[in-house]
Amino acid sequence: MSRAKKQDFEGRLVAENRKARHLYQIEETFEAGIALTGTEVKSLRMGRANIAESYAEIRNGEIWLINAHIPEYTHGNIHNHEPRRPRKLLMHKREIRRLSGAVQRAGMTLVPLRIYFNRRGLAKVLLGLARGKKAHDKREDIKRRDWERQKARLMKQYG
């Protein structure tokens, strides 16, 4: 299985969904390849992508990245790609079935956390199997983060 590990993120980060960790509680992460056209790869290599409002969905035993914005390649021609087209994600069938079961039974969702190029130069997306946070959970996280900042300031000041 290709579960994502910390060392798998060595490579060049292209886009990150920073709101995802605020809106969702990430249970598990998975790495998937992306089926891209040539101009999409060139646009990604320029560091241009936005996955803030995107999500992944399972259709007919395949995973699709929906609403991810990869802008048109500036030096492209009439064969340039459509910026918000659905893109197929590449994973093993066993992993797709497992994710499908979690999404259907447990009411979880698949959220893209980041798009990056791995050490071999292949475009990858890090998917998070996530559960939506309630408003009180978000407030707790904000309180905890503020307390950690305040504690660090006090330690620096007095210790």
Q: Would you mind describing this structure in some detail?
A:
This protein is an alpha+beta fold and about 160 residues long. It has one domain: Small Protein B, Chain: A, CATH 2.40.280.10. The chain has helices spanning about 20-25, 40-45, 95-105, 135-159; strands spanning about 10-15, 25-35, 55-60, 60-65, 85-90, 110-115, 125-130. It is globular and about 60 Å long. The relative contact order is 0.24. The mean pLDDT is about 85.
Question: What is the helix/strand order?
Answer: EHEHEEEHEEH
| Mean pLDDT across residues | 85
Number of domains: 1
CATH top level? Mainly Beta
How far apart lie the N and C ends?
Answer: 46 Å
CATH superfamily: Small protein B
Uncertain stretches of 5 or more adjacent residues? none
- Classify the fold: give the CATH topology: Small Protein B, Chain: A
Strand arrangement within the widest β-sheet reads 1-6-7-2-5-4-3
Based on Cα principal axes, name the global outline.
Answer: globular
The count of helical stretches stands at: 4
CATH architecture heading: Beta Barrel
* Rg estimate, integer Å: 18 Å
Helix content: 25-40%
Largest sheet: 7 strands, antiparallel
Structural class: alpha+beta
Strand content: 25-35%
How many E-type strands? 7
